[in-house]
Specification:
The protein contains 9 helices and 17 strands. Strand 15 and strand 16 form a beta hairpin. About 6% of the residues have low confidence. It starts with 6 loop residues before the first strand and ends in a 6-residue tail after the last helix. 52% of the residues lie in helices and 19% in strands. Helix 2 packs antiparallel against helix 3 and helix 5 packs antiparallel against helix 6. The longest helix has 73 residues. The chain has 467 residues and is of the alpha+beta class.
């Protein structure tokens, strides 16, 4: 099953040697620097690529060429340093300097090849115009574990008797400039999100299955839609909780207002009593003070009436908000249920088609399994076509990858062929020099372990005896 990939873009510190010098990447900041190791035995799996149009020049020379290009195209020198300017409101705004060369760090799988990352770079150039200059794959970095890994840890493996957790990653250096206009490419948040999705699609999805046969693309898209709808429901729930908090605050305010009204009514009763008393006194001492008290009493009653009306309006508004929110929730849930039902029907239809195909063509499932195995090993489409379609044997040189052992093994003039199993005629086997590929991988892995064990024992034998 494919896992999520991520890419971190940052301005590239330009040096003559490029970004592939050994250092602690930002995405490994949670691991102590003293625990990051490079295993020399795995360094042979590292790969690198330099853009042929980039030539043999170093990044500093290319950076200087960009500066001259910007001057020629725009008539102004390239702004390299951060600067400040005053905005319309009078506040000081910091403007970042131009970063014409930027570096991206990608998390990859052990089986990711240089061709995979180059495909990602080509698609970035096609979509956003950023040109890949250099690519470096690091598969020999990681850290040693204190003991055995957890049961769910499928990445760690033993080297020389100790458990090693690899950190597979790639560096890709981009030219971020538009050489026709002399201006920097502008990518917004949506573009960067699309770049994350592109990296996940190209580098992390399971390879080797035909989309026309398996319907894999449809299933992954369906899962994506379902996850997106779940996220939308979570957002709606959060909005609902926010509105409920608003309603709770409004109810508290309503209680406070009612308390104030009760206080005002008590004051009104006291005022009426005082008015009655004043009326009796007024008959003795005159009516000037009495009229003043009556006027204050009228104003107080008017204020109480206004507050009562405000409370009624607030209740109506709260009820309307609750009804509108409930209606939105019901509509979204209905749409979500309809889409889920449609996706379930589509998945069921595709599974039925696959079952029929497997029943009609018993070897189809085996052919698909052989195709996945060949892609995982590292064979090209033409090589797989020769093995499966033409049923030919092929002779190969180079390296092939074992998913079980998570590493590549050397081959030289070895012959590969897809044959029927001697045990079950409905099964197919990929052989190397007429030996099943699984058995051949086990032999190569045992040879590698013995070599590592001997290299670790030799220094101890040469120490001599101590008296």
């Amino acid at each position: 099953m494919a896992t999520k990939s991520s890419i971190h873009i940052k301005p590239c510190k330009v040096t003559s040697s490029g970004p592939h010098n050994r250092r602690t990447p930002e995405y490994m900041r949670n691991i102590g620097e003293s625990r990051i190791y490079v295993v020399p035995e795995l360094s042979s799996d590292n790969e690198q690529w330099i853009n042929p149009d980039f030539g043999n020049q170093d990044l500093q020379t290319h950076y200087d060429n960009i500066k001259r290009m910007v001057k020629e195209k725009t008539g102004r020198a390239m702004q390299e340093k951060e600067r400040e300017r005053k905005g319309k409101n009078g506040k000081i705004i910091k403007v970042a300097g131009c970063s014409p060369i930027r570096e991206g760090v990608l998390l990859i799988r052990p089986g990711t090849t240089l061709a995979d990352v180059r495909e990602f770079g080509k698609e970035c150039q096609r979509r956003w115009g950023i040109t890949p200059l250099q690519i470096f794959l690091h598969k020999d970095e990681g850290h040693w574990l204190g003991g055995k890994p957890d049961a769910e840890d499928k990445e760690s493996f033993q080297v020389g008797g100790k458990w090693f957790k690899p950190n597979y990653h790639a560096h890709i250096v981009f030219d971020w400039m538009n050489h026709e206009t002399g201006k920097s490419r502008k990518l917004n948040d949506e573009d960067m999100t699309a770049m994350q999705t592109l990296a996940s699609d190209i580098l992390m999805m399971e390879r080797g299955q035909s989309k026309n046969v398996t319907g894999r693309e449809h299933l992954e898209r369906n899962d994506f839609i379902i996850e997106k709808q779940k996220a939308e429901l979570q957002r709606i729930d959060a909005a609902k909780r926010h509105k409920e908090q608003q309603v709770e605050l409004a109810e508290q305010e309503l209680k406070q207002v009612k308390s104030e009204i009760r206080t005002d009514k008590l004051k009104s009763v006291a005022t009426d009593a005082a008015t009655a008393i004043a009326s009796g006194v007024g008959s003795l001492f005159g009516s000037g003070k009495l009229k003043e008290l009556e006027h204050s009493n009228v104003e107080l009653h008017q204020e109480i009436a206004k507050r009562n009306k405000s409370i009624d309006d607030l209740k109506v508004q709260m009820q309307q908000m609750q009804e509108q929110h409930g209606k939105q929730i019901r509509n979204l849930q209905g749409i979500h249920n309809q889409e889920l039902e449609a996706k379930d029907k589509e998945i069921s239809r595709l599974n039925t088609i696959l079952e029929k195909a497997f029943n009609w063509f018993p070897l189809l499932k085996e052919m698909l399994r052989m195709e996945r195995l060949c892609y995982a090993i590292g064979f090209t489409k033409d090589m797989i076509n020769s093995l499966l379609t033409k049923k030919e044997a092929i002779r190969c040189n180079g390296k092939i990858y074992s998913e079980e052992h998570r590493r590549k093994f050397d081959i030289k003039n070895d012959i590969f062929k897809v044959e029927k199993s001697s045990v079950d005629e409905n099964k197919l086997v990929l052989t190397i020099n007429r030996q099943p590929i699984g058995e051949w991988f086990k032999e190569q892995w045992e040879k590698l372990r013995q070599g590592l064990r001997q290299s670790a024992e030799e220094p101890r034998k040469s120490r001599g005896f101590k008296l």
